[in-house]
Predict the structure of Glycerophosphodiester phosphodiesterase.
Amino acid sequence: MSAPSGTFPVIDAANWPYPRHIAHRGAGKLAPENTLAAFRHGASFGYRMFEFDVKLSADGKLVLMHDATLDRTTSGKGRVDALTLGELAALDAGGWHSPAYAGEPVPTLAAIARYTRANGFHVNIEIKPVPGTEWRTGAAVAIDALSLWQGADVPPLLSSFSEEALDAARQVAPGLPRALLLDKLPADWPERLRRLGCVALDANHRELDAAVIARAHAEGFQVLCYTVNDESRAAELLSWGLDGLITDAVDRIEPAG
């Protein structure tokens, strides 16, 4: 099963178009995560690339949400995939953060695509399935990404901790670049990346040092990491040749360029 690959250029070490500084969930903790308000706030500090989490609603629509449940970041309760898009749209996804953001809606992937493309921003879509929906979510993200970014000069970078979700994305849209998220680096991490056709390793920054980054580059992979909020640690990682640094500290870590 595959969808048209579109006209995206091949993304690899020789053609890596993404900025080195990436805003986590929009603007990390400075605005309600995974909302358009957070993206706008991150952009106000000069960030040109945004990482965010996507999962499926009950009626198969893609929305931005980190947790499997609604309780922490919305006025709703229970599983995200128990509600339809219409029901999710009625929730308050900003009031939990601060009164200034009360009424901020749960955005769709389509809304984020419109905003980021209109402003020339790049995106890293983390496929974040509710447990049990890994393949379906990976395939849906890939299909919609192909459609929503059709004609874009730079495709979205897809990432996930779920190898099943990434494999689904690979099968459906092999032309979209992928990164495997790893909290710990297993001995066979290069083989896992190759098996999934990934262009990048996206690791917990605590797992990285100069040798790991050099090895990844020698194996033909770019290296991203999460979530770096200390300025000195960010400088150290970038000095080792890190290709993408994901941070909440958009107000303290100035993006290059």
